[in-house]
Design goal:
It is built from 16 helices and no strands. The protein is an all-alpha fold. Helix 8 runs antiparallel to helix 9.
Length: 414
Amino acid sequence: MNQLLTKIERIVRTDIRYLVRGGFWLTLGQVVSSLGGFVTSVAFAHLVSPHIYGTYKYILSLVSIISNFNLTGFSTSIIRGAAQNNDGVLAFSIKKSMAWSMLTVIAGIGVAIYYVFQENYIFGLTIGVSTLLFTFSNIWILYGPFLSGKKEFALNTKYVIINSVVTTACLLLMILVSPGVLQLACAFFVPSFILNWYFYKKTEKKFVKNTNVETTYYSESIHLSIANFIAGIAQNIDKVLLFQFLGPVDLAIYNFAIAVPDQIRGLMKGVSRLAFPKFAEKSWGEVRATIGHKTLLLALGSAAIAAVYIPLAPYFYQIFFPTYLDSVIYSQYAAIALIAIAGSLPYAAIQAHGKTRESYYFIIITSVVQIASTVPAIMLYGLMGAVIAFVFNKFFAAIFSYWLMQRVAAEDMQ
């Protein structure tokens, strides 16, 4: 068996044993999360009106944009710091995030007050409460990158599974009992807020063995947080614009169109998360020698999955989402973007080697392109424009990440 694995490793130029050990746990966690998302999607499709669901998704997107006023660029530094036994990076990141979180809270309350003055009290209350819960939940969840850096994939996955199961159960209960926008938002945010705080305290107690922190962590995180602020707008601009121009029902159709492709993408992103610590341990020469081959394999695997999904999508929606059959054609187009998941590998290599400037360039450029393409696409072509922009931006990011990685590697090896 070992000889067979060795031969396979030589062919694919990948540590299969490490991939199986870590990949099992990462995949398990994502499978459970995806299953929870699927179950709640089915419940939303059958038990919640498109108007309520579209409004709920709009508020989640708005809160996500507001939350980017916080420092969101610590994850990369935490993974690298934990991998290098600089355990103080976790407490350092929490402390700095807490200080910056006041900007998010002020912004969220400001938006909430605006809606209250517009006499939209449900929007105002929901946004205010959701911003507070989401802001601090996102701070506590920094235990996840720390555990990844320590290669504690099994424990991190257990936490992800518990969080997913509890949140799914709360959402399902609320959908059955009282599926209002405020109630749904609370059912989504409250469990994560409580559980992330609990898991953070357990992680801190068990794995933090020293207070070592590199002085570069803060400056790196500031730059990445600025970039992530623009990225947060880019990632949610499609939903906000669809709600404003076409209304909650069309936003609901769009969300169901990209839901399945996004869940599949989430499953496959585990490959890049697993590769991150390995890339951090290797020189640029070693990374560059194999990453092209690995990227191609991931692209081919993604293309095969898309080729299976596209013809089966109509039957899938008829069975599980009969209310949203209008989403089918859009979902088929969106599935083409699965191929672009291969671009996550070269970007993981850039991050793993602490290339803050290049990571900054990548996030800024891809986010600006995403905003610049999404806004006119939706204004001119509506739902189909949003899907076309979705696919285009995934491919642009993949191609740009590979080009940027090759450029960085070549410069460092000179």
